[in-house]
Amino acid sequence: MKKATRKSQLVFKPPSRPLLIVLSGPSGVGKDAVLARMKEAGYPLKFITTVTTRTRRANEKNNVDYHFVSNETYKEMIEGNTLLESANVYGNWYGVPREEVEQALNQGQDVMIKVDIQGAATIKRIQPQAVTIFLMPPSMEELIARLKQRQTESRYDLDLRLKTAEEEMKQLPLFDYAVVNRWGEIDRAESDIKSIITAEKCLVKPRETAS
């Protein structure tokens, strides 16, 4: 008499939806450096370049680090509803191009956006499925040292950024994840973000989508 054989039932998980990843954190924490490392590593993400009215620094390239535009052009972009979110930070305007984000997501591509704290809150409100990551320093003392070392702000601007950073650190509970960017350990921060993306791709229940 033959024994009954039990056939395994394979359940295939459908392809995950494209991720909208928002990276934020206080000024000087190293957001640009982490993103640059991720680009060098060849992450299959659509990295969105932010539009700003801020003056370009000596080491920055237009349409690479930011889309540098005039106040008039930025105003036209707001009036034309071409920005996903817009915020005034330290007297300058920053915004995320709506079309670039929507086009990439519609094509099934994961998107990475870098914004300030208030920008992250705005995107989370209109795109609740967004994965928000708070890049933070190991201590305020280290953040102060970083801001002083880069020497890109006046004493007044430096004091303002430090005061703002203290308030921004209080917004940590609003984010999905926190990644500590330690001085000299940028590879570790990059690896943590990679782990977050991998975990999100493995979710059984997808995040809520905007109605």
Concise overview:
By secondary structure, the protein is α/β, with parallel strands linked by helices. The protein contains seven helices and nine strands.
Termini Cα gap: 59 Å
Order of H and E elements: EHEEEHEEHEHEHHEH
Given the C-alpha coordinates, what overall shape results?
Answer: globular
Q: Examine the coordinates and then state which fold CATH places here, giving the name of the CATH topology.
A: Rossmann fold
**What strand order characterises the main sheet?**
2-7-1-8-9
Look at the structure and give the mean pLDDT: 87
Explain what this protein looks like in three dimensions.
This protein has helices at 31-40, 71-79, 98-106, 117-126, 140-150, 155-169, 186-201; strands spanning 20-24, 46-47, 51-52, 67-68, 83-89, 92-97, 111-114, 131-136, 177-180. With 211 residues, the protein is an alpha/beta fold. The strands form two sheets. It has a five-stranded parallel β-sheet with strand order 2-7-1-8-9, with helices on both faces. It has a four-stranded mixed β-sheet with strand order 4-3-6-5. Helix 1 crosses helix 7 (186-201).
Task: Itemize the secondary structure elements and their pairings.
Elements: E1 20-24, H1 31-40, E2 46-47, E3 51-52, E4 67-68, H2 71-79, E5 83-89, E6 92-97, H3 98-106, E7 111-114, H4 117-126, E8 131-136, H5 140-150, H6 155-169, E9 177-180, H7 186-201
Parallel strand pairs: 1-7, 1-8, 2-7, 3-4, 8-9
Antiparallel strand pairs: 3-6, 5-6
Helix pairs in contact: 1-7
